[in-house]
Structures
1.
Amino acid sequence: MLGYLLARAGVDVVILEKHADFFRDFRGDTIHPSTLEVMDELGLLDGLLKIPHSEIRTLSGNFGGTTVTIGDFSHVPGRCKFVAFMPQWDFLNYLAAEGKRFPGFTLRMETEAVDLLRENGAVRGVVARTHDGQETIRAKLVVAADGRHSTLREKAGLRVVEIGAPIDALWMRLSKKAGDPSQSFGTAVPGGIFVTIDRLTYYQCAFVIRKGGYAELQAGGLAAFRQKIAAMVPHLADRVDELRGWDDVRLLEVRVDRLERWSMPGLLCIGDAAHAMSPVGGVGINLAVQDAVAAANRLTASLASGTPKPSDLEAVQRRREFPTKVTQGIQVFIQDRFLNRVLQARGPISLPWPLRALALVPALRRIPARIIGVGVRPEHVAKQAVPPLQV
């Protein structure tokens, strides 16, 4: 996204992707109203929505036998009153194809940034690994967007503030059949939480477990794991045998952390490289997009005329740090006060008071929808001259 925005403004960019394609399953695949609004501002929304996707307009869950609507997106600002579920590779392929229409946009696949190039106390590029060996790529600015296990932030020695999470999540895929519920849904029972995300032809599923509990679950055997799912979500009981082995189950080790400083001269970290988010609310991708928009708005002029000053990079952190801290605070509250208690429960689950309030007062459902769908301090694309597109 940042590469697209900068190239659109006439800045030469090189994006490095270590894999041969974007096809990685079990990534976060939610595109929230805030991101859809950015796409609309760029004139890309109509094309994006032609790609097969599902649209979630309400979020609901079953808690100890009581069904509650948690969020209603019909009142969020912007054109799209829904969360779109779309494979992330489709979204990235679309954005990459649109970016290649700008002469300054270069996407290099199978090229992995493995180290930083430093000169006179500043970052001046990266060392990249390719099929042909290592090479040096020089740049006015390096942006680390290489995820929660970021190589570049480690090489920079930037300090990570560990916030922690009491949960992990197991991701899997189960088929969808005629007559199945056509919405994303969460089920919480004593000792377990199971989430189904409607992906049109199948369900992307998350089984939430205690931190570090995967080995214990595996020790109990795959048959017992299938039975747990069937007991929690009875309408899936006839297809749990689709999980033929533990290779069909992917472990997401949940981390919540953020950098104390997001930058140093010549280097800026954004997205999970700057702040690893919990999967609660599925907001990680959308915060990363917001980081990209804020960075483009702040840095385009300085990149066009020279090298961004450290103060320019620090300004991006100042702009995005508050939304990050607030969002992580909400996630940690939900993890500690609700999810962890459900996982530790051995008796009946009582409906927490926030959920009782949502059940009694429908208008309150706009609040979670606003937090999840739009977030804190949403970003908008700055208006600027755009060079002609390549045909």
Note: The radius of gyration is 22 Å.
2.
Amino acid sequence: MTAVLRRAGLAGLAALAVLATPARAADEAYPSRPVRVVVPYAAGGVVDTSARLVQQGLQQALGQPVVIDNRSGANGVIGATLVAKAPADGYTLLLDLEAHAVTPAINAKLPYDTARDFAPVGLLATVSRLFVINDRLAVRTLGEFVALAKAQPGQLNYASPATPVRLAMELFKSMAGIELAYVAYRGGAPAMQAMLAGETQITLVPLTPVLGPIQSGQLRALAVASARRTARLPDVPTVAEAGYAAFEAPSWIGLLAPAGTPRPIIDRLYADLAAVLRTPDVARHFDELGMDVAALPPDDFGRLIARDIATWTAVARAHNIVEE
């Protein structure tokens, strides 16, 4: 009798286990709770705006709230650290700029390893950046500016609101064989004021903040530092078209997860993100911000990050540039 009861009990437990399996699988299905996207910069900036452009679409695709969490400070390091140390379960993500790949080039004491501690999810967009000059300079092309700089070595300067701009300008200087003095500013607004006042002669800047001054004639766009021209200023050539095909200074916005996040979760996030980016309304809003939607999948995005880290590390070492 005891053996029969024991067998019956075991059979009952097995049946309960089978019945419980679907519920347990449902509990573990991703996502089963809100997903947090950490923006390592203040609200209102280009990264924050980009996050909010895709927020609603991602919520609908994931079936869970997507919470934007602004954690600014230390040039993005505070927010990135939070994500690097978060559980690798797909519920804490990082939306960052190309500064993500620049920071390790200039800071050897980060609280995380950029290459090791993050898993790329996907690229959202590239940002059109322009070489712009004050209209007081009597040059119309990038080639003419280079000729002027060679005729006046060290007498012209460039405005740098952030280290990524400084690295890009130093790279261009070395390729063009010119000398330009470096003038640092604490942010894009002061740098732009200096450009408008004629205190500095050239800078590399995203399209949106300078579109108005360019259209009013206060600033002149010499070249677009992207692979193709921007539709907002179709007559402005690319840097490659201006004769410097080897120069690249990509500016981008991408989504990352903590390293170790399961690949099915990464793939799910990328598929949903890419679908959101393909919607006409979202693409239009990105275009209005001077950005081109570029849904790059995880592996390709990872190669882009690795390439940028290598490029900017070499530039930083060549010019002895460390964190300011």
Note: The domain at 35-127+251-318 is CATH 3.40.190.150 (D-Maltodextrin-Binding Protein; domain 2).
3.
Amino acid sequence: MPVIILKSIIFIFGALIGSFLNVCIYRMPRSGKVEKEDFLKISGSQEHADNLWQDLIASGYIDEDGFVEGKFRKLRKKKKEEGFLLEGKYAKSKKQIFDIINKSFELSVDKPKRSFCPHCQKQVLWYDNIPMLSYLALSGRCRFCKKQISFRYFFVEFLTAALLVVLYGYFGLSAKFFIYSLLTCALIAATFIDFDFQIIPDEITLGGLVVGMILSIIFPQLHDTPLRMHALMYSLLGILCGGGSIYLIGRFGEILFKKESMGGGDVKFLAMIGAVLGWQFALLIFFLAPFFGAVVGIIARLTKGAEVIPYGPYLSLATFLVIIWGNNILAYLFYF
């Protein structure tokens, strides 16, 4: 098969995967999480929404970040709101409030089955869900409510497709190509979720960590060894070096600045990356990522006064560069 045809197939397949990643990026951080704005129609004003929010926290139904607590989960299993108790005037709207929290709790990657508009919540028609093409055909707007859909949806689909073609150019149709493609998809999803919510879901980090160890055993060539137990050892060392390096620098930052400087999600994220790439690449990523983060951090501080920036995107960028050029970088460093 001609290379150009094969690359075209990979590009199309990558765009389809990118469409799925958009679903993950939107739904994962919102699953089981509500926002104050969700209750504005009920409360009537931002001040009353704040009061309702505090009432829900005090009642043990959500935590301070809006994630559903165990008390509500138990009520939700019964699918009834009789035991859902609130104080004051909000008690009269308990069914509406219960339904809002319950709807958020039910949101997941596979529920609902079909994509929906983030504004009007109407189901997207199948011919409006063709990667990249539908976005261009609709000028980036919902067919129903006509509101603007974020350009990010188009960009994620294009980026995923393009990066998979790049990986094919370096690794061909090998085990490394498929595994690195899977890792790259995880990097893309984690990056955009971290940008929006400053979190990286455990489904990506811990799930990817387990998958990384399993793939290391099945495909020991991932760590350039024919021996499965050696590959597993390299994967475990990658977890320790990746997660351990971020954890230690975070602890040092806490001591130095008297506040949290590195989130637990970043620790698990680099541990997951280390499980796939091994300890040498994990350490290389650890040292490369701060250069990208520092540049953006300085700009954000000067232009917006931001004191905290998500670190996951810069770990992702460093990781992809290491996937492509890691061996060359190490060879250059060891040469000197």
Note: The chain has 13 helices and no strands.
